[in-house]
Amino acid sequence: MKVPLRFQVTEYDCGTTSLINALIYLFEREELPVSFLKAIYKYTLDAEGENGIIGAAGTSRVAVEKLSHWIKRYADNHDFNISCEILEKHEVTENRIRECLSSNGCVLARCYQHTEHYVLITGMDDNFAYIFDPYYLEEDYYYNDSQVAIVLNQSFTHNRIVKINRLFNESKQDFSLMEIEKREIVLINKKAQTTTV
After folding, report:
1. Is the pLDDT of residue 96 over 70?
2. Terminus-to-terminus CA distance in the chain, angstroms?
3. Sequence-ordered list of residues with C-beta below 8 angstroms from that of 40, at least 6 positions apart, any chain
4. Residue 107 CB contacts under 8 Å (≥ 6 apart), including other chains
């Protein structure tokens, strides 16, 4: 059974929530090993805030990389049909995102939203990216932004529609993937199961 994607519960757990959402988006509830949930909570919320509290600066890039490597190892050792690939800087292209989305995948993206923020890209057409942003906002938040819209009735796939040119914009606007030197995404795919005869 599929379950709706979820929102973060603090100001800091966008990375944690978006990683859980990637699994929810790709797999049925019954397919997911509890080990994945434990690993996500183990690795994320590791960045220390200005006040010295661990987690008060969210999830670091290093933690996402470690978790991605853990997922690869788990998949290899337990025959679980998932793959992860981290792309950085110039590797982050529209073509690579489209390839992932068209082959049973989703994309964990670090974007700008008043600060660095994690979201999940689940679809893309000629003009728009379909994104689940775990940060809950009121329906009218983007009324004055012609490049972003809030969607309330697609909780299994997306809650934001963002113009593709905004996504690849290097300015500090919501959902920009930021400057090329700061870009980082994780391509997450549900691999096709192989059958033996």
Report:
1. yes
2. 28
3. 16, 19, 20, 67
4. 97, 100, 101, 120, 121, 185, 186, 187, 188
